[in-house]
Design goal:
The complex is a heterodimer of chains A (341) and B (271). Chain A is built from nine helices and 15 strands. Chain A is α/β, with parallel strands linked by helices and 341 residues long. Chain A folds into two domains: 175 residues, 3-Layer(aba) Sandwich (Rossmann fold); 144 residues, 3-Layer(aba) Sandwich (Rossmann fold). Chain A has a nine-stranded mixed β-sheet with strand order 7-6-5-8-4-1-2-3-9, with helices on both faces. Chain A has a five-stranded parallel β-sheet with strand order 12-11-13-14-15. In chain A, strand 1, helix 1 and strand 2 form a beta-alpha-beta unit. In chain A, 55% of the residues are buried. Chain B has 271 residues and is an alpha/beta fold. Helices cover 28% and strands 30% of the residues of chain B. Chain B contains six helices and 14 strands. Chain B is globular. Chain B starts with 5 loop residues before the first strand and ends with a helix. Classes of the chains: A alpha/beta (341), B alpha/beta (271). Chains A and B meet through helix 4, helix 5, strand 5, strand 6 and strand 7 of A and helix 1, helix 4, strand 8, strand 9 and strand 10 of B.
Chain lengths: 341, 271
């Protein structure tokens, strides 16, 4: 019989589990119910007791590590903590969120306990065996994989499950703190830094992803480039709509090539082949041309619309729900007026 | 005082992103149709790692840069014709299968063996660079397993910047959720850095560097060891192209006012 360990971790404040962790709990509970497996929740946090209340009803057994070293997202301490939790739980399947913190360590942890790992899982299925869905070639090919080797680690992409919201009533829970033998810690997390930009434009929880393409910095019908105006229109839109900003690779790359560039864009905004593949309910692309934003970057966008001057852009056909053949400068100025009113 | 660095950059080769990919199943499991004839490039994130490594090595005289790459020899040779013109490095090729479907654990084992076999490598001063994920498997597993096999206890993932200090310690910026960077300070090498895009533009082709590199690349390719990759119990139930094809409404004759009204209504609607 399978036994499942869901590994979770606290957020930066240390006072709550991350949303992605709670999504992994939901996935673990569903999987345990389907396989008739036992379920254990593991917590990596400076004070597991402080964050455990959110998952007290999720499983009969809670394991946690404790200590200031686990307040920091650092490879050496996190790997030691996860290894200790896995050894204590003796699980055959380990489910964890694909967060930056766990993505950094979990393959190494799998190797330490002679396990195997698959990452970026978007769905878990199968009644008798576990069938995991993931994408290959940057979201171009979808595959369902399984393994007989155990322990099998599965890192779940965010947004694939609802976060665990707890259940009413008292639950009998065994809480155990696991001792961790820490190696010499040579790394210290000293803080966080936002990209050099006027304001934060990456908003993972936004409903809308606004994708800016290279067309914003090209010559307009009057023969001149209007980068400042483009920047103002985009930022005004982001402020009024609360959207998150994505960018095509070509637009971000222009900065490194000495061309006119939107000052608030960094590689962090980039979606597509060497960028992110964010999950948002809606996406609006503007002045984009090419496969990157429309296929790779938009794979997990729900409703998609595009504004483009190119009526024959083949990349939007079949990928976007609506394509407006229009000048994005004019349209976005009007959109901003309407949003402000 | 600048310290001489020992940097090993790990990079795979992937189909040119502009190619249309079609999965197929052969005797050895899934692969891509016409995989061996598809134009290939150095994995984009790994290429960023290579360029960052070269820039770092250039700032520290006496530094050495190796590029460890796994792939079929013929494809490696094709890709190296371009990559070799970008930055100076010594190639450590491993002759193995191409593509994203082989198991990452086995790939990592083959690459870490290749790193261990590099003559004169001082592993106490080693930086292992690579892409934080690949454009083929995109798992982010290989580099971690390499680090673990080499016994390196400091690993950074989604790196965009490293700043070396005179005492050998370094500050590193890693991408974390919410468009932010986590800032860490590490006591020094050895360390593994899985790079995101970094901040450097792709270097221009330099035929002189290319000629110099190719003098060692061709003999290295001829001597490349073959690696057979174990499946590690990984089996594929299905491998498919996404079926989702949308019916696109193309609006050619709407005014900017009409489009704006429609967009604002759409943005405000709960999906």
């Amino acid at each position: 019989m399978e036994s499942i360990l869901v590994l979770t971790h606290a957020d930066e404040s240390g006072s709550a589990l991350t949303r992605q962790s709670l999504e992994a709990v939901t996935a673990g509970k569903e999987l345990a119910a389907r396989l008739g497996a036992s379920l254990t929740i593991g917590i990596v946090a400076a004070d597991g007791n402080r964050v455990a209340s959110a998952v007290k009803h999720a499983g009969p057994r809670l394991l946690a590590v404790k200590g200031d070293a686990f307040a920091q997202a650092r490879f050496a301490s996190d790997a030691a903590a996860c290894e200790a939790l896995c050894r204590a739980a003796q699980a055959t399947i380990v489910v964890a969120p694909q967060s930056s913190r766990f993505a950094r360590v979990m393959a190494a942890v799998a190797l330490r306990i002679s396990g195997v790992i698959d990452t970026h899982i978007t769905a878990l299925a199968g009644a008798e065996t576990v069938e995991a869905t993931r994408w290959f070639y940057r979201q171009r090919i979808e595959a369902v994989v399984t393994r007989t080797a155990r322990p099998w680690f599965l890192l779940l992409d965010s947004g694939t499950h609802e976060p665990y919201a707890g259940e009413a009533g008292d639950a009998q829970v065994d809480e155990v703190y696991i001792a961790v033998e820490l190696p010499a810690l040579r790394t210290e997390v000293t803080g966080f830094r936002a990209p050099k930009q006027d304001e934060q434009t990456i908003r993972p929880d936004a409903k809308l992803l606004f994708v800016a393409g290279a067309g914003w910095t090209k010559k307009q019908p009057d023969g001149a480039v209007h980068v400042e105006e483009a920047g103002r229109l985009i930022l005004d839109f982001l402020r009024a709509s609360g959207a998150s900003l994505g960018s095509s690779k070509s637009l971000v790359d222009q900065g490194g090539e000495g061309q006119s560039v939107l000052p608030f864009l960094t590689h962090m905004n980039q979606v597509g082949q060497t960028g992110s593949t964010p999950r948002h309910a809606k996406g609006l692309s503007t002045c984009c041309h090419g496969e990157e934003p429309h296929v790779v970057g938009w794979r997990f966008i729900g409703e998609r619309r595009a504004i483009s001057l190119d009526a024959n852009c083949g990349w939007t056909r079949g990928k976007a729900d609506v394509v407006y053949i229009a000048d994005a400068f004019q349209v976005m100025a009007k959109v901003n007026e309407l949003l402000k009113s | 005082m600048a310290t001489a660095l020992q940097i090993v950059a790990c990079a795979g080769i992937v189909p040119d992103p502009l190619q249309t990919l079609e999965p197929t199943t052969g005797a050895n499991g899934p692969g891509l149709k016409n995989e061996m004839v598809l134009p290939a490039v150095l994995d984009p994130w790994a290429a960023c790692a290579l360029y960052e490594a070269a820039a770092l090595a250039a700032k520290h005289p006496g530094s050495k840069l190796w590029l460890v790459a796994l792939g079929p020899k013929a494809k490696l040779q094709q890709v190296m014709m371009t990559v070799a013109q970008k930055v100076a490095f010594e190639l450590v090729p491993v002759d193995g299968p191409i593509g994203g479907f082989p198991d990452a654990h086995s790939t990592a084992a083959a690459i870490s063996s290749a790193i261990e076999s590099i003559a004169g490598l001082d592993r106490t001063q080693l930086f292992v660079f690579g892409g934080w994920e690949s454009a083929s498997r995109g798992a982010g597993v290989t580099l971690q397993v390499i680090g673990e096999r080499l016994g390196i206890a400091d690993l950074f993932f989604g790196v965009d910047q490293i700043s070396l200090r005179d005492d050998g310690s370094f500050e590193v910026l890693e991408r974390v959720e919410g468009g932010k960077h986590q800032v860490s300070v590490c006591a020094g090498a050895p360390a593994v850095l899985g790079w995101a895009t970094g901040n450097l533009a792709e270097p221009r082709n330099n035929p002189q560097i290319g000629m110099s590199n190719m003098r060692t690349i061709m003999p290295a390719l001829q001597k490349a060891k073959t690696a057979a990759l174990d499946a590690n119990s990984l089996s594929y139930i299905s491998v498919n192209l996404p079926k989702q094809q949308r019916t696109t409404r193309v609006e050619k004759n709407m005014s900017a006012d009409e489009i704006a009204s429609e967009l604002v209504e759409w943005i405000g609607k709960d999906s």
